[in-house]
Amino acid sequence: AIREQTHVRYLRDPREAVQQVLSGEANAAFLMKPVSLDQLREVAFADEVLPQKSTDFFPKLLSGLAIYALD
Predict the structure, then answer these.
(1) 21 CB contacts (<8 Å, ≥6 apart)?
(2) In terms of residue numbers, what domain contains 50?
(3) Which residue among 12, 47, 67, 68 has its CA within the 20 to 30 Å range from the CA of 60?
């Protein structure tokens, strides 16, 4: 069910996650530390990938800026 995301929600606000558990809207909440820039760099330079939703950049960059070299 995780891959299909039928029973999993990703929330930015930890207070909202806790509130959903307290109200019965969710059964559990997992609060994760964000990936550090050093960890992200290490994974990228090792030509590896991170699990789905392990990075969340906010505010969202325009996709053209993220994938286009600005030489």
Answers:
(1) 27, 28, 29
(2) 14-67
(3) 47
Non-local CB neighbours of 35 within 8 Å, separated by 6+ positions: 50, 54, 55
Residue position matching structure tokens 């996650």: 17
- Report if pTM > 0.90: no
Please report which residue ranges of 1-71 form alpha helices under DSSP H.
Answer: 14-23, 37-45, 63-67
The tokens for 58 are 């906010």
Residue 4 is assigned to a structural domain of this protein: no
pLDDT tens track for 14-69: 999 999 999 999 999 999 888 888 999 999 999 999 887 787 776 776 665 666 66
The answer to whether position 24 is within a domain reads: yes
* Residue 48 within a domain: yes
